[in-house]
Request: fold
Amino acid sequence: MDYIIKFAEGFRNLFDTGAETFISWMTGIVPVVLLLLVAMNTIIQLIGENRINRLASASSKNPLLRYLVLPLLGTFMLGNPMGLSLGRFLPEKYKPSYYASASYFCHTSNGLFPHINPGELFIFLGIAAGIEQLGFSTADLAVRYFLVGLVMNFFAGWITDFTTKMVEKQQGIKLNSEVKLNH
Reply:
């Protein structure tokens, strides 16, 4: 009988923990993401969607801008997950590649810029604690992680371009090369 009671209590605790996590999201990340979304849309309206579309179109023509500069600026200024939303301004053809690059920037920039992805800062801090115990500088680790990330995140986006072309060919589809936003 004790096993059944312990199982029932454990089962109930699972839902209590889930509820606590949900409430922490509602008082933590959800309002932040909502406000970032409002701020981004306000800035877009102030600048003008046509100008943003032209900037995105210009950025989409150059892989370095598309997978290095745009994702870095997006994640630095908007953090995770809002930095990923800048991909909406790119043509459909480049959205998978932008996402690949920008999502990696949310991780590799975390050592220098913890505001980008505070939910995963514990990963960097765990590694940094080991580095400190070895007597090395965590600043060196953060800079190296960032620099390697710049290169590797760019390649993640660029290589995804090639895999997207393969999938297009395999599926017999052609993704749009022009920026088209749905209102």
Remarks:
- The chain is about 75% helix and 0% strand.
- Residues 49-170 form one domain.
- The chain has a mean pLDDT of 85.
